[in-house]
């Protein structure tokens, strides 16, 4: 039954409805894939096979009851009943550890479930496990995890990207049909590109952050990876929408994503920003992205250049704002109420040792950066100034979206780099995110999906961005492209 | 000798009387009574991934206070994170307001020995309380226990301009503000329970100078008495230092209740850098003009307006007016009594409410709510007294019974046959009887002991069981005794 892991989400749902196979069979197929591949890829921090089987059994009971009642209406069944997923280990699921890839939370079991996760549970999903991440989502390679690095299924010598590298790698390797991630500066889009899967970073506020362990609160978003734009859209539309528990979640209505059966991009205006095609980027990446844009033009879209003049400031602005917010968000890990506590005689000694032993180097680096940026005498020059430039960056996009519907560009300057390649050079690591950071600063949505391969067989991704709350047009465009290309259907060498 | 002048500003934190906490749905419990950590959820415990949601009732109460103080309300205010480490602060930061507070530029009128003064209010903002630490010494070990019941309880911070000049003014300001908070039902104002925390900052300068001296802030004051004493003490300390040519160091001091001295807690060098920045988990708080107007329209009469009305419109003595206004529940009761009075004057009601009624409440340690006394019934009693149906003394007894049984005055008067008798013949008969039956006292009276008048009066009232019209008894007794004296001469 290992071919079950190759089926798309709609095919799995149809099969379970018809009774061709059960939810337990589907779940067991993915559990076998995990058992087979996990030793080489290390995508999970917490594997929950018993929970998954229990949930799948419950799904089967509901399928049986539904069939027993005469299969009256499809609406009577939850829309994702029996579909397995993985959850990035920065999103809380009640009763299951949530480590954030950090020693300081290695024993933390949240007594609550993130809203985004709960909405998918309500839709009937089965949870296979919690995926590996850079510690507190700070990183671009999933190497900064206290529990070891995740590897790229296209080449295990390479990183899967990060910080949601566990989720991207697992989806690419067909260990799960979909996985949740979080994106603060590119943590969904960049690993999606590196692993050859589709990943959505929604508009800020589109998906509730309740239960997402905070990194940079004004930048954090919850999104999802799947193998195609159509499947990604399905999960996204079920997670999106206002949540009274998150005051920053938007009240904008969530239109149902309806994707046309025929690939047609007539009337779509695509903007290409020259600031995203920089010297020093990989020629293969540039070529793949330009080919994809040409293909979209062929499907009826019009293409024009747009200017995003403040793009060059995104990196420094991000590395002031995100660490500043992180320095406050991570202050609660003091060993007093939950998580790791280092033994000590005195209170301040306990604080110092708990945080000293509990956090990894990159987290400490960002806490120090952020504390500095907020300090008396520096606040105006750093944090306040960064917020002003952030407004300019957002305005660049809003201006551009007066002229075009989507902006097309690369996700990252290169395909996946080698494990260890950037670990001693934080700046080089930070540069991996230069094309993804602006969307977080502007609060706009971005979709990453495969657009080709390098000569060495590594996936190349492209990115589409749109005005706030226009995720549908991203899915629509990528879906049309995926109907005429097969990059997203290719299997990495490491698959079941 | 240079004369010095004290310059004092106050920061007051008042716990708001909301049902739930500032940013979560935990109930607000009395943290001096409740078991530790019974009102705690993942949000107020600062657990990872949780987010705050603003309590609408807290904003409304804050707006009531700000509007009563005549503040300018910011249509958009911003919550901010105030960062510092302490085990009673679960998130490692307190959500407060900093650059853009809820309201600014108000006035609190206070009554001083030299008349009314307007103290300027700099700002009014919302924030959350911290938890409480208990330091335990047991079995040779020293450790601390954390109680998070109070963590996240809404606090209103009210900051004055440095307009106060003496310890007495500081006390008047704090007391007036407490009366206001109680009148608005915004805070219990209980200082001993920590629901009202007052932190004065004091500096001293040569009188007439327009520059400010170095300020010292006093913390942990849990009564108005310690507030006044601590401020007076600090002024004395600073004046002493400056007179001797020493300098005042900027610091935070505590108040030692037992020794009545302040002691240093934190110097300027140890002051925190709170690294304030806008709270990214909360969008700016938008207060619409409609909301403000609906709250303004629902404001009750303010204490200083009420006090003026009592004196100017109702003719109350200033001390009575002040006493009534200091207890909003009592003043409300008084207003309802006045509204129901048919014949008795408001001044009489004030005398009775601040006299008999307050004495009754104090001696039984009761509150108005538990008394079975309606303002209408109380007004009726006063009217009957004025009409002469019962005399004043009897009325006091009737009031006592009304409070206990809840029966109306008319029923008590009838049941106990207390109605005042104004029959002149009957009174003359009793007076004659008393004089006849007490020849020894009469002799003494005749020989000049005129103070026995009251004794004879008492005898008459005793025989009539208090029912006789006192005025008529006095007149009859005066007449008869004068006859006796004249008959002698």
List keywords for this structure.
heterodimer; A: 496 residues; alpha/beta; Amidase signature (AS) enzymes; 11-stranded mixed β-sheet; 15 helices; 11 strands; B: 489 residues; alpha+beta; Arc Repressor Mutant, subunit A; 9-stranded mixed β-sheet; 3-stranded antiparallel β-sheet; 21% strand; elongated
Structural write-up:
With 496 residues, chain A is α/β, with parallel strands linked by helices. Chain A has a domain at 2-263 and 447-489: Amidase signature (AS) domain (Amidase signature (AS) enzymes). Chain A contains 15 helices and eleven strands. In chain A, helix 2 packs antiparallel against helix 3 and helix 5 (165-172) runs parallel beside helix 6 (189-195). The radius of gyration of chain A is 21 Å and the shape is globular. Chain B has 489 residues and is α+β, with helices and mostly antiparallel strands. Chain B has a nine-stranded mixed sheet with strand order 2-6-7-10-1-11-12-13-14. In chain B, strands 5-4-15 form a three-stranded antiparallel sheet, with no helix packed on it. In chain B, strands 3-16 form a two-stranded antiparallel ribbon. In chain B, helix 3 links the parallel strand 12 and strand 13 (251-256). The termini of chain B are far apart. The mean pLDDT of chain B is 92. Chain A binds chain B through residues 91-92, 98, 100, 105, 108, 110-112, 114, 209-214, 216-218, 244-248, 324-325, 327-328, 330-332, 334, 336-338, 347, 351, 371, 374-376, 379, 383, and chain B through 42, 45-54, 81, 83, 85, 87, 90-93, 144, 146, 273, 275-277, 280-283.
């Amino acid at each position: 039954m290992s071919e079950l892991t190759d089926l798309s989400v709609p095919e799995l749902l149809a099969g379970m409805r018809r009774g061709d196979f059960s939810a337990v069979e589907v779940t067991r197929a993915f559990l076998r894939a995990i058992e087979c591949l996990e030793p080489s890829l290390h995508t999970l921090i917490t594997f929950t096979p018993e929970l998954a089987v229990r949930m799948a059994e419950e799904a089967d009971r509901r399928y049986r009851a539904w069939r027993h009642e005469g299969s009256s209406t499809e609406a009577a069944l939850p829309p994702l009943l029996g579909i397995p997923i993985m959850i990035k280990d920065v999103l809380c699921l009640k009763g299951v550890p949530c480590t954030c890839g950090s020693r300081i939370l290695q024993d933390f079991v949240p007594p609550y479930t993130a809203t985004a996760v709960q909405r998918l549970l309500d839709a009937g999903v089965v949870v296979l496990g919690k995926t590996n991440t850079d510690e507190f989502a700070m990183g671009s390679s999933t190497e900064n995890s206290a529990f070891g690095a995740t590897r790229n299924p296209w080449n295990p010598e390479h990183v899967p990207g990060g910080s949601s590298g566990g989720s991207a790698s697992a989806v690419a390797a067909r260990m799960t049909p979909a996985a949740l991630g979080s994106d603060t500066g590119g943590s969904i889009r960049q690993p999606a590109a590196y692993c050859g899967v589709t990943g959505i970073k929604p508009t800020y506020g589109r998906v509730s952050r309740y239960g997402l362990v905070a990194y940079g609160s004004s930048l954090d978003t919850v999104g999802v990876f799947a193998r195609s734009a159509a499947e990604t859209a399905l999960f996204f539309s079920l997670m999106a929408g206002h949540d009274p528990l998150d005051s920053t979640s938007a009240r904008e209505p969530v239109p149902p994503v309806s994707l046309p059966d025929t690939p047609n991009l007539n009337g779509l205006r695509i903007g290409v920003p020259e600031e995203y095609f920089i010297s020093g980027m990989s020629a293969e990446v540039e070529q793949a992205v330009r080919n994809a844009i040409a293909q979209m033009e062929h499907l009826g879209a019009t293409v024009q250049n747009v200017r995003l003049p403040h793009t060059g400031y995104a990196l420094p602005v991000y590395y002031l704002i995100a660490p500043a917010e992180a320095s406050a968000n991570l202050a609660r890990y003091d060993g007093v109420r939950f998580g790791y506590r280092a033994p000590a005689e005195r209170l301040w000694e306990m604080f110092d040792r708990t945080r000293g032993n509990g956090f990894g180097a990159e987290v400490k680096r960002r806490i120090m950066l952020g504390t500095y940026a907020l300090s008396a005498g520096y606040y105006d020059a750093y944090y306040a100034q960064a917020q002003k430039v952030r407004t300019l960056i957002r305005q660049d996009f809003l201006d551009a979206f007066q002229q075009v519907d989507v902006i097309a560009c690369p996700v990252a300057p290169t395909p996946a780099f080698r494990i260890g390649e950037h670990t001693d050079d934080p700046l080089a690591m930070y540069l991996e995110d230069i094309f993804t950071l602006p969307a977080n600063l502007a609060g706009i949505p971005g979709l990453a999906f495969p657009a080709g391969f390098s000569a060495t067989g590594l996936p190349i991704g492209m990115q589409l961005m749109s005005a706030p709350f226009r995720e549908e047009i991203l899915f629509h465009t990528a879906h049309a492209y995926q109907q005429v290309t097969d990059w997203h259907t290719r299997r990495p060498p490491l698959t079941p | 000798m240079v004369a010095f002048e004290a310059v004092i500003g106050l920061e007051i934190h008042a716990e708001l009387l909301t049902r739930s906490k500032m940013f979560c749905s935990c109930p607000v419990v009395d943290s001096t009574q409740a078991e530790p950590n019974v009102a705690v959820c993942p949000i107020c415990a600062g657990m990872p991934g949780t987010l705050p949601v603003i309590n609408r009732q807290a904003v409304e109460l804050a707006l009531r206070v700000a509007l009563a103080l005549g503040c300018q309300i910011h249509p958009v205010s911003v919550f901010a994170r105030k960062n510092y480490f302490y085990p009673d602060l679960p998130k490692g930061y307190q959500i407060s307001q900093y650059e853009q507070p809820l309201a600014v530029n108000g006035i609190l009128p206070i009554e001083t020995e030299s008349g009314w003064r307007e103290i300027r209010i700099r700002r009014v903002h919302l924030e959350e309380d911290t938890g409480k630490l208990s330091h335990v010494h047991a079995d040779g070990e020293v450790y601390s226990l954390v109680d998070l019941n109070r963590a996240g309880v809404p606090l209103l911070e009210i900051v004055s301009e440095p307009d106060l000049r003496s310890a007495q003014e500081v006390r008047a300001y704090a007391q007036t503000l407490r009366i206001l908070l109680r009148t608005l039902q915004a805070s219990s104002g209980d200082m001993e329970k920590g629901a009202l925390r007052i932190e004065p900052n004091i500096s001293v300068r040569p009188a007439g100078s327009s520059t400010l001296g170095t300020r010292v802030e006093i913390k942990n004051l849990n009564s108005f008495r310690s507030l006044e004493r601590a401020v007076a003490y600090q002024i004395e300390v600073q004046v002493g230092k400056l007179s001797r040519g020493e300098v005042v160091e900027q610091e935070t001091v505590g108040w030692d209740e037992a020794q009545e001295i302040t002691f240093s807690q934190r110097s300027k060098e140890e002051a925190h850098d709170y690294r304030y920045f806008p709270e990214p988990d909360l969008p700016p708080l938008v207060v619409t003009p409609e909301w403000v107007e609906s709250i303004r329209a629902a404001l009750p009469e303010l204490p200083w307006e009420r006090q003026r009305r009592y004196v100017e419109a109702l003719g109350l003595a200033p001390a009575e007016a002040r006493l009534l206004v200091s207890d909003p529940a009592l003043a409300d009761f008084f207003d309802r009594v006045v509204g129901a009075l048919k014949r008795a004057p408001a001044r009489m009601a004030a005398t009775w409410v601040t006299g008999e009624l307050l004495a009754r409440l104090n001696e039984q340690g009761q509150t108005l709510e538990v008394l079975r006394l309606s303002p209408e019934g109380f007004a009726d009693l006063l009217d009957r007294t004025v009409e002469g149906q019962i005399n004043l003394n009897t009325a006091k007894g009737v009031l006592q019974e009304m409070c206990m049984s809840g029966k109306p005055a008319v029923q008590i008067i009838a049941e106990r046959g207390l109605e005042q008798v104004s029959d002149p013949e009957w009174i003359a008969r009793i007076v004659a009887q008393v004089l006849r039956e007490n020849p020894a006292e009469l002799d003494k009276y005749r020989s000049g002991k005129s103070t026995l008048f009251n004794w004879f009066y008492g005898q008459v009232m005793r025989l009539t069981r208090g029912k006789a019209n006192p005025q008529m008894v006095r007149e009859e007794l005066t007449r008869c005794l004068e006859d006796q004296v004249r008959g002698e001469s």
